[in-house]
Design goal:
The protein is elongated and about 95 Å long. Helices cover 48% and strands 14% of the residues. It has five helices and three strands. The protein has a domain of 98 residues: Alpha-Beta Complex (50s Ribosomal Protein L17, Chain: A). By secondary structure, it is of the alpha+beta class.
C-alpha cells in the first residue's frame, strides 16, 4: 500500500488520504526523496526496489530531484482537511513542498524610499505657490430660510 501511495504522490505531487496513512507515507517516502538527490545507478536501483514503477522513478530523478536538491529535508507537507463523512476518520492531503505554487515563497523586492527633511521642505515650497495661483471658487450665498 505504501509503495502504491508513494508512486501516486510522486506522479501527482498531491494526494488525499487519512491522517494515519499520510504519516506512514511520509516516513516511507522521505528517505526515497533523499536518496534521489544523488543520480547514480545504485540510487535508482534502491528507489526502484521500493517503488516498483519505472515511470515514477524516472519522474522522481528527472523532475523532482532537481527541485529538492538544495533542501536539507522536509520534502512533504501534511495539511488536515477535516473528517470523512462515513466513519469520521481524519482526512488530510499530503503534498510535495516544492510543487505547491500557492504556498511557494516569492521574493518580494524591498523598495525603500529615503526621505530627508530637505527634500520634503523643497517639495512643499514648490507646491505652495502653485496652490496660491489656483483660482479660488466663490461660494454662492446661502438662501435665508423662509419665515
Amino acid at each position: 500500500m505504501l509503495s502504491n501511495m508513494a508512486v501516486s504522490l510522486i506522479m501527482h505531487k498531491r494526494i488525499t488520504t487519512t491522517l494515519a496513512k499520510a504519516k506512514a507515507l511520509k516516513k516511507f517516502v522521505e528517505p526515497l526523496l533523499t536518496k534521489a538527490k544523488q543520480d547514480t545507478t545504485n540510487a535508482r536501483r534502491v528507489v526502484f526496489s521500493h517503488l516498483q514503477n519505472k515511470f515514477a522513478v524516472t519522474e522522481l530523478f528527472q523532475v523532482i530531484s532537481p527541485k529538492i536538491a538544495d533542501r536539507p529535508g522536509g520534502y512533504t507537507r501534511i495539511i488536515k482537511t477535516g473528517f470523512r463523512q462515513g466513519d469520521m476518520a481524519p482526512v488530510c492531503f499530503i503534498e510535495l513542498v516544492d510543487f505547491d505554487e500557492n504556498m511557494a515563497k516569492t521574493q518580494k523586492k524591498a523598495t525603500r524610499t529615503r526621505r530627508s527633511r530637505k527634500s520634503n521642505a523643497a517639495a512643499t515650497a514648490t507646491e505652495a505657490p502653485a496652490a496660491a495661483e489656483a483660482p479660488v471658487a466663490e461660494e454662492a450665498p446661502a438662501e435665508a430660510p423662509a419665515e
